[in-house]
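pasting for ref
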Amino acid sequence: MKRLLQAIVYCLIFVCFTGEVFAQRKLVNDVQKRNLEDFSKQLSASFTASKQRALSLAASKNWITRKITPGGRVIVLQGVNSLGFPRFLRTSNTEAAAATRTNAVQPGGELDLDLSGSANILVDELAIWDGGTVFRGHQEFSGKNITIAANQTGAIEHTTHVAGTLVSRGANPLAKGMAFNATTLRSFDFDNDVSEISNNAAGLLISNHSYGDIAGWDFDGGRWTWYGLPGDSEDYLFGFYDERAQAWDKIAFEAPYYLIVESAGNSHAYTGPSVGSTYYGYESRTDQTIVEKGPRPEGISDNDGYDVVSTTGNAKNILTVGSVNQLPNGPQSAAGVRVSSFSSWGPTDDGRIKPDIMGMGSGVLSTSANGANLYSTLSGTSMASPNVAGSILLLQEYYARLHSDSVMRSATLKGLVCHTAFDAGNAGPDYIYGWGVLDMRKAAQTITDNGTLSYIHEATLQQAQVSNYQITANNNGPLWATICWTDQEGTVAAVGTLNNRTPKLVNDLDVRISSSTGVVNPWVLDPENPASAATRSDNVVDNVEQVYIPTAVAGQTYTITVSNKGILRNGKQDYSIIVSGGRLTGTTATSPGEGLTVFPVPASDFVTALLNIKAAGTLRVQLIDMSGRIVYNKTQNVQEGTFNTQIAVNNLASGTYVLRMIAGSQVESKKVLVVRAN
């Protein structure tokens, strides 16, 4: 009896202690939390003013304020942009688990991991923003604490269906959610979403957003409307990095463990009326009234090609999800995976890879808001997004189980998802499938193998630092490394700008793999030729980079180098690295000294040089080969302080060179090793 009492007391103490630990665990520091709260207040004030302005104009301009179409889509007026045109949000459905191999990690799955979302560390850390709120009375949500924010619109079909894919408990086994034993879900409608996201980001790991800005053509159940600017053949919002995308990136930077999951949109489902049929649109570029425009002319985009992901789907630090057709047995071959006919394709205007990942969004059975025991089948990237969001919550659950309840940075989670995706479409990443279909089995196995057959590491790169990871290949097969980082928010182009190619990247990190046979560069895509397969070169736009060697040699050591171009904002950048096909056998890091700093080492396409200039004046930069021949020579005026420059070396033969900088009496030199990339 005494031992029993002691055991009970111990259990009570343990429960109280662990509860306190979970309550105290912080995903952001005090400065980040304050920044998020201040940003939320700014955003809320801006949204309120913009929406009031829009509502005051709606009647005279013939704008929809809120509508649920016969197919269940929700369209809501949100505000006006700087040109006075309205901004609408719409849910991404049209009129789960096997496809992404999530069932491999769930109870009874082949990996025997028993992941279901039940871990205490996940409590209150999953949220949904949508066109309405969740119908909490459904039998699939029995026993779950679904909180609905104050003053939110009512429960609707779309939100309830999405929530079911996330967390349905499986009363109907065919509708069981990805994280079916998750006990909590926070539900918000998408009015004033950016402010609410910022205000809640400090306590979240994952949120799902199955909606986006209306762009191009839309059919509201009664008429076709062209939302592009009059005179433009395509809508500038496609591929556009706007203030909302910028805000999402800022929030993600301040909340480094929080990953926003966004549907890519269904633009391919809205191709507009046939040429010659009646359509509606804006009166002119200065009159935002929606009027009947007469017969549709030729030349207006059908929304059915590349570059049709709108606004927030183009944010850098989020996970943008496209849709593939049903895969009841999981993906077996690249040829067997088919993109859903409605799913939007990238790229972003600056050429970044979007969507990032694919989920299953065709014919998804889930909860209905029409009754406590009713279900419905819907299709759209709205359905693919929660398939991914609910699944990757389980990766956080598994990682925490193995790491004393510590969770991954969002960059680690995103990098892991892209690193282990099942490749579809062209080899490597592309603008239709992104990095491929989410492969939960492979992602979870990579976590299991960390330290033996794989390597997952979170690090910080200081200005001009070069980090080297020595990896010994496990076998004769593929070896690949992926880096991912949460970048600071980019610069927004002027409203109405079409296809601005200026990179939105702020801190440009680089990854290379070198060996005795040369240097291998990361994948890159060409937005001017979006259907072309990925090539290997210097990636200057994406904050996910991957180097892939298809035939590594067992036992051979490869060096993975992580460095940066130019000046890092704030002088440093956190990043995550994931490696498969080899084990870590050593690390080294070189830091800048007082003299000349040159990186990367070795170089294949460029070198970046940094020098602290002691006095303003003329600077000569020279690159000299071993015969004494000057192969690069440039003179320019410089100011006192840190100087950096980038020199292309992809036209030089492999070998050793000397980089020399002369500024008055200051002379600095450094050897440079050039190895041509494969």
